[in-house]
Automatic annotation (TrEMBL):
MF term (GO), any: RNA binding
CDD domains: RRM_SLIRP
RNA-binding among keywords: yes
Protein name per its UniProtKB record: SRA stem-loop-interacting RNA-binding protein, mitochondrial
Residue span(s) of domain RRM: 63-138
Domain of life per record: Eukaryota
Signal peptide: 1-18
Keywords: RNA-binding, Signal
Amino acid sequence: MLNALLSASLRLCSPLVAGPTTTQIKIKSKQGSSVVFTQRNWKAPPSHMATAAAVAKVGKSVHRIFVGNLPWTVGHQELRGYFREFGRVVSANVIFDKRTGCSKGYGFVSFNSLAALEKIENEQKHVLEGNYLNIQKS
């Protein structure tokens, strides 16, 4: 029971893809038993995030969408991989909380062609890891 209570209260997330650091938390109960939780914090490599300068170089041909209701397990690569089937992805960024490192549940994807946006609009439902995505032009 102690394990279930503690694991529910300590929601651990590691949504990104590179550079692990490990944190261990040891909790003792009144009865003397102890539980150790290990959390891996991941830091995103800069190569997966498009900079403002990179997007500016492409110019006016960049078409950007907002993607909401992302699962917290989805990182930059998974988002890019899902939208790759619709056209060339210029950038795919998931927004993370700076304090906790967990996903905020939304992100942005940029394409270099309007045809990719039309393909996305033509598909009725977008499902990623069991979540129906909320997609809007931005």
